[in-house]
Amino acid sequence: MHEMSLCESIVQIIEEQARTAHFDAVRRVVLDIGALSAVDVAALRFCFDVVAAQGVARGATLDIRTIPATAWCMACAEVVDINRRDDVCPRCGSHQLVVEGGDDMRIKELEVD
Amino acid sequence: MCTVCGCSEGEARIGGQPLVGTDAPHRHDHAHDHDEHGHAHDHTPASAHHHYGTGPARAHAPGLSQSRMVQIEQDILSKNDGYARDNRRLFQQRGVLALNLVSSPGSGKTTLLTRTLTDLRDGLDLAVIEGDQETSLDAERIRATGVASVQINTGKGCHLDAHMVGHAATDLDLRQGAVLFIENVGNLVCPAAFDLGEAYKIVILSVTEGEDKPLKYPDMFHAADLMLINKIDLLPHLDFDVGRCIDAAHCINPGLQILQVSARSGAGLDAWYDWLRLQRAARLLGRVVPATV
User: Could you tell me if B72 lies within 8 Å of chain A, comparing CB atoms?
Assistant: First the structure.
């Protein structure tokens, strides 16, 4: 359910940008969502349409790119991609992974009019 | 923009009227470009109550020009994180240990908290920010212990955010060396993402829940610094495997510290109180603490 709050933050950032970068409408919003960020993408899309219904982001499409999470595998001494916090190393099967990132949620860019 | 805190968030509106029994709440209502927006600041800590709803109604100014790309590169939670930084700075300046208590509904969070307050109130300055979707029932339970508390009602919201906590904190008289408990909305998912400016996140899991909960809700257990396994007095009646639960939690968060307690029987509470005193003392190292008379 916090997707609603996230969408309010997204719309707020877009509205601030609209004032400073001088645009009146947004066609496309490009988001980078980390694989471990606890976001349900379907819920995010649904909430965005609701929250954006009144403002400058009305009608904009969400272009969501899922960014794989990475972890340092102690056994392999390598950085590996993971998708869940309890994943094992895809190379050697070890549990000794130090998750290094993947919970970021960023607005990358906007296509605006 | 609000001149008290600079807040400009559309959802940050005080929905509830001033509570019956409060002392002349300071209220300021002012028009925003999008909506009426009011804050009630009640400076009576023992009875303060904030209500947050949702639903900004924003103006729309259509216009057309050529399409272009605007690079933003901004964290979606940057606004919350900014408020969280402000809160953290405030707590650090005042030498306040702020703790964010998170759990599912029904884990015994409020019972554990009231027991803790009752046992520690004579030796420590304590304060509570209580988060629930609706009602001030929990804040009343806290006040019954004699400890000041502020109730935040999130309305439709499923978590506390740093902005709400910043407002609530100004309603509390936080003295140097105080311990501030922030009891989050009962929810093991959403509060994981929202930094409140706390020193530590404490996740409470009761043995009447599943021992695999850390695997089912990994984000919260990953974000937590301390896990309290509560209601251990019920273990003889349940199939809950404490060892498996601890293994599951360490699978998600190898550095997670774990204590087993029962708010009802009092088992394990001494270790929890030691943990609190140690963290508090660590925050006060190097400070000149005014001598208490």
Answer: yes
